[in-house]
Amino acid sequence: MPKAYWITTYRSISDEAKVAAYAELAGPALRAAGGTFLARGLPAHAFESGALERTTLIEFDSVDAALAAHETPAYQEALRALGDGADRDLRIIEATP
């Protein structure tokens, strides 16, 4: 079964305190669900239509594992803490074989 990658970009942040509260809860929740953080922060460069947005890349054993992580009570608590603090784009993609 191919690995999966959870990619989050932050289009805008309206409340840094809510984002910090989310990160404090989300990191442990996603690691507990099997996620491995591979990268996070601002891009070093962006090309074509790319934007210099805060980005997070997390590896999971499968798409199912990533989806299950999203639905855990611990991650849902993190989302509640985030609330309206940011406009984000979250994608889960399957790795190529």
Describe the structure.
The chain is α+β, with helices and mostly antiparallel strands and 97 residues long. It has one domain (4-60, 69-94): Alpha-Beta Plaits. Helices cover 37% and strands 32% of the residues. The chain has helices at residues 16-32, 63-71, 73-82; strands at 4-13, 36-41, 55-60, 86-94. A 4-stranded antiparallel sheet has the order 2-3-1-4. Helix 1 (16-32) runs antiparallel to helix 3. The mean pLDDT is 97.
Q: Which structural class do you get from the secondary structure elements? A: alpha+beta
User: Which value, in Å, is the CA radius of gyration?
Assistant: 13 Å
Mean pLDDT figure: 97
Query: Strand arrangement, largest sheet?
Result: 2-3-1-4
**Uncertain runs:** none
**CATH structural fold name:** Alpha-Beta Plaits
**Beta-strand percentage?**
25-35%
CATH architecture heading = 2-Layer Sandwich
Tally the structural domains: 1
> Care to count the β-strands?
4
Largest sheet: 4 strands, antiparallel
Topology readout:
Blueprint lengths: L3 E10 L2 H17 L3 E6 L13 E6 L2 H9 L1 H10 L3 E9 L3
Antiparallel strand pairs: 1-3, 1-4, 2-3
Helix pairs in contact: 1-3
Brief overview, please?
This is DUF1330 domain-containing protein. The chain is of the alpha+beta class and 97 residues long.
List keywords for this structure.
Alpha-Beta Plaits, 3 helices, single chain, 97 residues
